[in-house]
Amino acid sequence: MQRFQAFKFALMPTGEQERQMRRFAGACRFVFNKALALQKERYTQGEKKLGYTELAKELTAWRNGSETPWLKDAPVHPLQQALKDLERAYTNFFAKRAGFPRFKKKGQSDSFRYPDPKQIKLDQGNSRIFLPKLGWLRYRKSREVLGTVKNVTVSQYCGRWFVSIQTEREVEQPVPQATTAVGIDLGVVRFATLSDGTVYAPLNSFRRHEEALRKAQQAMSRKKKFSNNWKKAKAKVLRIHARIANARRDYLHKTSTAISKNHAMVCIEDLRVRNMSKSAAGTAEAPGRNVRAKSGLNKSILDQGWFEFRRQLDYKLAWRGGHLITVPPQNTSRTCPCCGHVSADNRQTQARFLCVECGFEENADLVGAINILRAGHARCACEVSGAVMPPAAGTHRSASRAAQCRT
Ligand SMILES: [Zn+2]
Fold it and tell me: Is 250 a catalytic residue?
């Protein structure tokens, strides 16, 4: 089984290397924006969108032309990758996975990617990596890189530079150590409730830092834009954002690791988090209902990092030979696990479940988790037997993996 894994480290560049990295990230951004402007212009003139090969030819012309000769100083592969990124942005847009590609701004995801492993040298013994046009860069080695290097991304965040090394290696087909199956109900009051009764408290990292962030943002707004004091205040805002992101990442990793170690099959609801967060405000023609209450909920949803959590569970389970199964969210909060009665009346409050038919009473999140586990078992069984499948609820990957699952 092939395992793809990324290893990320902080770089310790020299002053000259840092200036170069800033220039390269800028050149990639320039190429992305110029290509996007070109595509937009062609569209308004009724011309066909250019494919990657044609864009790459344009890039050669830009590099050799007199208008932007400085593009020649940047390594060519990362510039081509910027064009590939634009291609992907268009593909995602046409597949309705994302909005229309937008122009990149300076300081917003500054990064560039080296796709050719032949041009990259990794010297782990001396904690350094060789990249075209940058030379040997020292990095803070926190662990050993495993596998063969496939590509490398250099990125800047909060004034620090990082290298992410994507590798590939052959590992033995893992045999799950755990044998149990569990359902997970994701919520706002509790981050996650497991069908075995385990509860994970909410993260709310954003809420906790909200006050500090608000103050820092106010301080920034009082400064004259682009003055030295404004830059200092802005750096502080970015630092708080970074702290929030770190706390969240840490929490999500700990939780997803614990769950994937303890269980071989994990069932989770297919919540379309992006739709939920988008729908609150509504549109000008059809303004959303309960906008205030919902936007409060949405803030919490986004804050919890459910999407990232699901992504982590998916790959961590796969590493250990387990499976993530997504089930459609219909009725999971309204079905009685005891007698099977389905009614909205079963759930009188957010927290309590009380069956109007048989009187079964339990915490509502736990009931949700139990129903999700049942739905997961059902889904698994019917896919294995090749029976008619309910409309695909999971991502393609989870669904195909569910097909291999035996319970
Ligand atoms: Zn009942």
Answer: no
Residue ranges covered by each domain of the chain:
2-170, 181-202+243-403
Residue 342 CA to ligand 1 centre (angstroms): 8
Element (H, E) at 2: strand 2-12
Q: Report the separation in Å between the CA atom of 186 and the middle of ligand 1, taken as the mean of its atom positions.
A: 22
Asked if pLDDT for residue 193 goes beyond 90, the answer is yes
Q: Ligand 1 centroid to 378 CA: how many Å?
A: 19
Chain centre distance of CA 149: 22
pTM of the model: 0.71
Q: How far apart are CA 379 and CA 375, in angstroms?
A: 6
- Per residue in 43-91, pLDDT (tens digit) is 999 999 999 999 999 999 999 989 998 999 999 999 999 999 999 999 9
Here the contacts of 152-157 (C-beta below 8 Å, separation 24 or greater) are 152/113, 152/114, 152/120, 153/111, 153/112, 153/113, 153/114, 154/11, 154/21, 154/24, 154/25, 154/111, 154/112, 154/113, 154/114, 155/109, 155/110, 155/111, 156/21, 156/22, 156/25, 156/110, 156/111, 157/242
CA 83 to CA 395: how far, in whole Å?
27
Distance CA 33, CA 113 (A): 16
